[in-house]
Amino acid sequence: MNSEITREPVFFAQRFLVRHGAAVEANPEGFEALLPHELSRKLGLPEYVNIKEGLRAEGEEQHGITYGSPLLEKMVELACYPLPLASCRLSFHYLKSQGFDRLIQDQFRFRKSLCRVTSTAPIKTDYLVLACRYAARSDEQKEGLIALFFNFETGALIPRASNLSSTAVMEAAPLPESVRTAARWERILRGIARDSMNRRLNRDVNNLEEYYENLKKEMELSLGRAGLSDRLVQDRKEKIALIPDELAKKKEDLLKKYSIRIKITPCAGLFMRMPAVKILCEAHMGREKKPISLTYSPVTKSLDPVVCEGCGRSITSISFCPRHHALCSRCQEKCPVCKV
User: Fold this and answer.
1) Roughly what angle, to the nearest 10 degrees, separates helices 8-19 and 70-79?
2) pTM given for the model
3) Distance between CA atoms of 76 and 70, rounded to whole angstroms?
């Protein structure tokens, strides 16, 4: 293994301590450090400490550091709090100006309504790339890093946006004023873990429902075959009657399988101010209509999802309650906003 890679924890620890006011002196086995009082308190270390590479440290004043060691984990936690933020500005040689009706048709489903574009306008808006550390626990534990991409104005979580467009020109920029808006942060942080396992659960539930629906149809068709005894017909009818209970049991088993505990911790954020297109639309529900605003992103070359007004989930299948709140499939049965 590359010796530089194996020494990365030591290099990180040295930089961390120096940045927080410590005096550091390297030695062949690691380094010695004289820590400010506040830093020694936060790390739970004496003000003078001898840190050795790996876990070979012995004695009260000697501490080992390597991947996964408690001391390194504590330094990483302090380095990520408060959340490190950076900002940049993206520019593009070309910004889409037409064809949005087709994009809406391809990306969105409006239930019992029609969506029509009324006007479009170029805008500047902020997106946020949030690097997070996750730990997922069920019958086993998985840990890793994940990058989440948000429209910071609407709070919409945008899929398939981990890689920036190669056509973008990037330059450093000051943090946007909206970074101080607590309500936007709360909306984003609430939604970080919401959809972690839902997609796979929904996929398996749909497959299960399709299987049992086909099974039921086959068994019902078989009842019309000639030569079946009354006893056999009765047995098959009883089996058909049991299908809903069996399906419910299988769904419950799937729910237990996917009911895992997930902890997601933001580690760093990158704001990106870029040009976009604001698309003003009207959703027509019979004779009634509701204005809807959509955003076209040149990074994903697609429209950002809409945020459910009931639960805050990012959605592309949109329903409306009697008072015209835009809702996801879960909230459409009873609107959480107006309780209708």
Assistant:
1) 50
2) 0.64
3) 10
